[in-house]
Amino acid sequence: MLEIFKEICLDRNSAAPLYQQLFEILREMIENGRLLHDTRLPSIREFARLLGVNQVTVVTAFRHLEENGFANSRSGSGTYVAGLLQRLPAKAENPLLQDELYPQAENSFMQNDQILINENTINFASATPTSDLFPVDNFKIVLNEVLDRDKGNAFSYHESQGFLPLRESITGLIAKDRLDFSVEDINIISGAQQGIDIIAKALIHPGDCIMTESPTYTGAVAVFKSRNAQLVDVAMQPGGPDMNLLEYTVKKYRPKFMYTIPSFQNPTSYSYTNEKRKALLGLADRYDFFIVEDDYVSDLDFDHQGYLPLKALDARGRVILIKSFSKLFMPGLRLGFMVVPPQLSQDLLTAKHTTDISTSGLVQRAFDLYIRKGYWNSHFDFMYKIYKTRYEKMTDALDKYLPSTCSCIKPGGGLNIWISLPAGFHVTNLLHMAAASDIAFAPGTIFHTGNTPDAANNLRLSFAAVQTDKIEAGLEKLCSLIGRLSSTIYPSSNTPVF
Ligand SMILES: Cc1ncc(COP(=O)(O)O)c(C=O)c1O
After folding, report:
1. Domains along the chain with CATH numbers
2. Structure-model confidence comparison of residues 39 and 494, the more confident one
């Protein structure tokens, strides 16, 4: 029997019945993490003897634990502490699977133990802006103007490549990133996810090898798997993957393309140095593969590191750049674009056409006007300031509260911070305890494609969906839970070996 049960002391002089006292003590131990998920409680006979009470007292306390979702009895085996998420559905309103974590549904952890959020949740799990930040008023102005100006034309089929004036506006937007392209090079897509899907549809034949970083964006992995691609990965590191290892992997597997998120990568927020960007392009040339560059937040460069898009360095037409507007604008609008090398242009257009013919004409026309009226630039400045403030709050709070057994690298931009936890740390238990305190985060495991050994020991903290004034309190609480759980692995608080 665990020592912890020997600490339990019931008060025979109290007005509260003994079973009630036992229930409350065990409930508290479970809620504050002293009794972890799946811990076996002592048998009824053992417990009754230990506490000097009637067995009925223990049976009744266990029944209350079960009725309140704190424990499960397993026939022939005993009573076990339940995962705290099992009692959350009653108050949860929106399962987190509404956003980018969704494609990992085959991960049994996500399927059976969905992270649930409610209106009180401090949500460090979602890397998507909340709807209070959406520029609804200005978008209404441009929508109305488009309807008055274009009438029914706004609702006809549009070119698969995209509404020409919008492509023109986009060439202007990207010029500041040293991306000097013409309307012929731009394809409008219904979100970056569709871009990944179209590329996979056009380029992957069953059995083709696709290379990714690990960990990486789950939505891309799901697409490549759906095309029966063989996936290989290289470990993502601060500054970008080890290029020798990357070259070795390319030589061995000869990928059709590499899917990469070179700036503020999802989930790690690490970025390739400019040297590694050039080296990657060199390898693409030498070993004849394409690069799919997913740029979902490179503009959020708070420390002005000035990373160059791979596409800006792409002299030989190796790179397909995908750019999303979801993290800065309104994700439900479903809008993004690709910059496509000429030799892939026709194949990608055919794939787009067979997917949805064209992205909504009304949305494209409205967004074009939104850019032309200067609303985009001011909205970008507004979002940049908010995210920068949140980023600074996050890093300040982590400096203050993150236990010394953990580490993180300040990425200087993006929307996520990747925390490394000590070896042996149970992220699942933390997830349960945090959920009970109305805090959500994304466990690192869901982003791993398979080969990286430290898969269980990271978590991704996003700040896109957390109100600025909730960040410090949320991280203080989360870090104290991390500290408490770490002390169950390293009770003597010796520094662990990573
Ligand atoms: C790295 C990355 N790429 C693409 C997407 C999908 O973006 P969109 O909403 O533009 O389809 C996401 C969404 O979270 C993402 O994190």
Report:
1. 3-82 (1.10.10.10), 94-132+378-489 (3.90.1150.10), 155-373 (3.40.640.10)
2. 39
